Amino acid sequence: MKNLNPKPEMGRRNGVIGLGLMPDHWPTTSNINVSFQYQQQQQQQHPFPSTPAPEDEPNSQEEEISKGEEAVAQVRKEVDILEQQVLALQVVVNNGSKVDGKEISYLTEMLMMKLLKLDGIEAEGEGRAQRRMQVRRVQGIVEKLDLLKLRNSKL
Questions:
Q1: Three-state DSSP class for 58?
Q2: DSSP 93
Q3: How many other β-carbons are positioned within 10 Å of the β-carbon of residue 20?
């Protein structure tokens, strides 16, 4: 396999490196040291991972289901906040005022991130139905934003 980037300076394009990091914005090593120290503390507190007993197997499946439902509920709360922001923008645009396009783009990106988060949730039964409902809800809000962006551009 070919090495696509033999030298770090070869990855620079227009002053941008990799995922949009500027050379003076590299992550500091202190963050890495802190997380490593935290992991060491956790291992000292719990040196051996606990293994579930065989009779605990059915409960683990129920826990998986409830974890999926809890994850969907958390995303639902986050989407509720974003939806309120979309509705506020909609009121402003409907009153004839122009909104900065960056605000609309930001909300669209945040909603797309919530779609990705929902996509990563593994759920069965009711949790799966809730996840599907939230995906459709987010898609509807994104469509509203697209219409809002079009209306805003005409003002």
A1: helix
A2: H
A3: 7
- Give the C-alpha separation, 107 to 83, whole Å: 9
Tokens of 29: 């090593």
Cα distance between residue 24 and residue 9, in whole Å: 14
Q: Taking phi first (over 0 means left), then psi (-120 to 50 degrees means alpha), and beta for anything else, what does residue 18 get?
A: left
Specify whether the CB–CB gap between 135 and 121 falls below 8 A.
no
Tokens matching residue 33: 């040291």
The C-alpha atoms of residue 107 and residue 150 are separated, in whole angstroms, by 15
- Each residue's pLDDT tens digit, 38-91: 445 555 555 554 555 445 454 666 666 688 899 999 999 999 999 999 999 999
How far apart CA 30 and CA 105 sit, in angstroms, is 33
Pairing between strand 12-13 and 16-17? Answer: antiparallel
pTM here is 0.59
Residue type, 52: P
Task: Return d(Cα 142, Cα 103) in angstroms, integer.
Answer: 13
The two structure tokens encoding residue 8: 């770090």
